[in-house]
Amino acid sequence: MSTVRPERTYSGKPIALRRAERRAAFLEAGLTLYGDRGFARTSVSDICSTANLARSQFYTEFEDRETLLIGVHEQIETHVRAAVADAMDRLPSTSTLGDVVPVGIEALFYALGTDPRRARVCFVEMNGVSERVDHYRIRRKRVWADFFEMLVRAHIAHDYVPPGGYDVVTAAFTGAVGEVGQRWSQLEPRPPLTELVGVMTSIVGALVPPLARSRSDPPLDRPQ
């Protein structure tokens, strides 16, 4: 007969829960420091001080500052993907690509822009850190490129191929998101979100000509 071992606890809390709380505290500290002062100007000591945790606890959760940076970015991307998916799920089933694209772009930049730290981490601090971070960024761009291709095929035709092919078009799309997003995140004051959506929608329309002909309604206004 097997016995169930009691869950290990520390100071009245399950150890697994305490570890999850520590990891969350380090991620929040990373978002704050990388998003406010920048990756290069943040030390492990700074992170531990902000999280109110020990260096030994940091190295239990993360290999180094880069690993934390990737973890912070993954957390932001999870939030952004959920925001984009939710915005698209609320569209009518009859929506065209011209309806879907601006709504998705608006949701993406709104999810980032409501917290300036997220925008800085994604568009500024992830650039030029190391070869490892660059490889991670390339993989994440590929995910967004595949998502963009899926949208185009689903709303135009499964066998539709845009001028230049999907490799070129998706590279142009993800590159535009990164470059425009980086510039937008650094401007003071920032241009209104509606203007940014208009610029990005025009770019996508140039890459995928049928989009410009399929637009019906403008995206919903949001607080700037």
UniProtKB/TrEMBL annotation:
Signal peptide: none annotated. InterPro entries: Homeodomain-like_sf, HTH-type_Tx_Regulator, HTH_TetR. Residues 43-62 bind DNA. Keywords: DNA-binding. Gene3D superfamilies: Tetracycline Repressor, domain 2. It comes from the Bacteria. The keyword Hydrolase does not apply. Residues 20-80 form the HTH tetR-type domain. PANTHER family: ACREF/ENVCD OPERON REPRESSOR-RELATED, ACREF_ENVCD OPERON REPRESSOR-RELATED. This is TetR/AcrR family transcriptional regulator. It comes from Rhodococcoides kroppenstedtii.
